[in-house]
Amino acid sequence: MHASPPLSDRRIFLRFAFIGIVLIAIVLLFGYVGGWLAPQRLTAQRMVNQLQANAGVFSGYRRNHAKGVCVAGYFDSNGQAQAYSAAEVFAPGRTPVVGRFAIPGGNPYAPDSSVPIRSMALRFTQSNGQQWRTGMNSMPVFPVATPQAFYEQLVAQQPDPSTHKPDPAKVKGFFAAHPETAAFLAWVKTAKPSSSFATEGYWSLNAFVFVDAKGERHAVRWRMVPEANDAGVGGSNPDYLDADLTQRLAQGPQRWHLIVTLANPGDPTNDATKEWPSDRQDIDVGTLVLTSTEPQESGACRDINYDPLVLPNGIQASDDPLLPARSAAYATSYLRRTSEEARLPGTVQPNAQPETK
Amino acid sequence: MNTSSTSFVFTARVLHWLMALLILSMLFIGIGMVASVSERHAWLLSIHKPLGIAILILAVVRLIVRLRNPPPPLPDDLPAVQKLAAHASHWLLYVLMLLIPLVGWAMLSAGGYPVMLSHSLRLPPIFPVSGAAFAILRHMHAWLAMLLFLTFLAHLGAALYHGLIRRDGVLSSMTGYRPK
Ligand code: HEM
Ligand code: HEM
What is the pTM of this model? Predict the structure, then answer.
């Protein structure tokens, strides 16, 4: 049905040009949104690349907190948090937990004494199928408040190729330019690498929002407070934490109390470098009981991404800018390590057993 | 069955333009969220998942509408290669708009994630938990989405070619608008 009069060559050319311009404009917009035209934008890929630049790439392992062990057990809720959060995990009763203890850093063979920080990650699986995942560190404040500052810290700490150590001048420069790190630096001065995962407390650091059954919102932080308090000094075994945990669990379950801190109006929820004043209301909402441990290479925690934004109904993210950055970076780390597990082309494969020191 | 053989039926046209808008938004949301570490990442992802499942449901409805209402024929004088390209790309678009959301759902299942569409709405898993399967599905999700984007560009280019250069009634069979 060629009813329309024929077009002149010039008009045909112009119309082809118009079609071309429309298509190119869409491609450019797509590229702009995808960040291809803005290589300086901070992305999860760049953050994880920097973690790899600092520690190396260890096929199949997490890009941070690479050295760790799987644990399992359960959480016994006493119902005290129910007034603040509708999450099923806080109803009186038991929720199964798969967790992981680790030390920060991207090297899965680092000696346990190399850092004074330990971490605990937990996945609670509610009977309604929703999950609560949380990753906590054994310190009351985080060094930085924003993803950009975290990235700059990593860059400053990148080992110098000639000395294989971070350049002290760059590290000093970073901390001088970031006064918000002061509380962390004061803590780290007194911190000693503990000889046990079981005697440490673990802080959420980031704030979250509990939502109760009526829909009211309550800003909170939480921490795990250990029942065991007989930490000694780590021995000469570079993997003493694992040995200690196995030994303690052979004697019986290890327990922590989950303490939820309620913010007062006006307490900052977007700044993990600042503790809330110590008079804020603490609620003991239940007991975490860990009963068994497995190596991470074969254990149930291996393929879990402890993304802090996997939350059940009744717990939500706060406005803390670290939370979405953690979520994005953990997803990137998870995709890289699972791609290595799947031996996908282009991924790093484990070379002959790396020497264990 | 259908009143006019020169246009798509009304339901088909509505579904076409609604889904065109949704799918194009989804491609931009997807590519934008993985390039961001700000609140935008979490916010876009919370739109991405329910919208993706909505597209899956709409795609099933649309496939049924398509099978029950054959589309108007392409112009007789359209070269055979172009006819073949048109049919192949249309079926590719149907396959992709069904497959990409299914792969998204399956990859979250394989990763052991709860497939949350809102704070409280959770879909059941459709794939056994496996880290290696997660990785493969997650890469497939991204590559299939890129293929969808390229197919969409070809589709848009062809539609404009029909509408502006051939002016053979193919574009208006979907817009429903016929200049006198
Ligand atoms: C923007 C800042 C941060 C970035 C980019 C970052 C990055 C990462 C990455 C890439 C992983 C490995 C994830 C995986 O492959 O599963 C990880 C693990 C971890 N991070 Fe962070 N992190 C940040 C902030 C924090 C904060 C504030 C905390 C403390 C509350 C924390 C606690 C942990 C813990 C406990 C793990 C280990 C999880 C496990 O055992 O699987 N991180 N981090
Ligand atoms: C028509 C439907 C869909 C389209 C066009 C689409 C498109 C995309 C695109 C373009 C990306 C970015 C890929 C990359 O470059 O890495 C993406 C990522 C993603 N999509 Fe979809 N998607 C769809 C449906 C779904 C569904 C139904 C789900 C889950 C229920 C889903 C979950 C995800 C997740 C979790 C990511 C990765 C986020 C991250 O790693 O941070 N998508 N999608």
Answer: 0.95
